Amino acid sequence: MNPFSKWGSVLGLVACIAAASSAFAVSQSPAEGPVFGDEVEITGSAPVEEQVTALLVGTAARRLSMPESDIRVRLISPSAWNADLREGYRVSLKEVSQGSMPGRNSFFMQIQRENRSPTSHWVSADIEVVRPVVAARRPLSSFHVVTADDVELVPHHLVRKGERYAFSVDEVIGKRTRRAAPQGVPVLLSALDEVPLIRAGDHVTLIVEADEMQITTTGEAKENGYLGRKVAVINVESKKVVYGKVRDASSVVVGAR
Fold first, then answer.
1. Which of 43, 66, 75, 232 is the most exposed place for a label (fewest CB within 10 A)?
2. Domain that holds residue 220
3. What percent of the chain has pLDDT over 70?
């Protein structure tokens, strides 16, 4: 056997052992990563399971950049490690399944006792996000233009990552449904189309703003215009094309930022 190959294998094994040992460092801060960055000291003021749940809630809240009040956690079969915890022990977590929140997640939990070697356990938990989202206050038909009376904010379990929920009523008002929306069901942004406030050929009030002055004239839209977006308008007097931002169904502001 080639002696260099033999020593290479030995050095590789030593490197793997060193990497595995470093994973048990408790001193890493949450900002640096999830490797045992979240920990809690068990006290006698609350049940152990409740304290570990609170630790998981904090971990999930930081991971999802959401307030802890929006997070719900249910531990799966905690009895295996629950009996191993006593007051004064420290519990540290390492997240294992990145990218699956909300949903069922796995964590590697380390229990540190004074003057004793740490013990490690697998912890599974169902993590849910509950946030107020925009839902239909009454049944909405297809191609319906949403009004303020059509929708309301209701608490909702966000079960799938990536769904385009609306968290403000203003996000959906004036938009048109692509399909029917049952009462109480969240109105997803992906199921809405924007409705042009101004259509090509409409006559609009063209408002020119510059140096604290405001001049109004008549314009004709060259294209459909949407609230808050730029639209091309022909100045009826000068016949020049200008671009302005749609303020409402009858006016376009030139010079608006």
1. 43
2. 203-254
3. 73
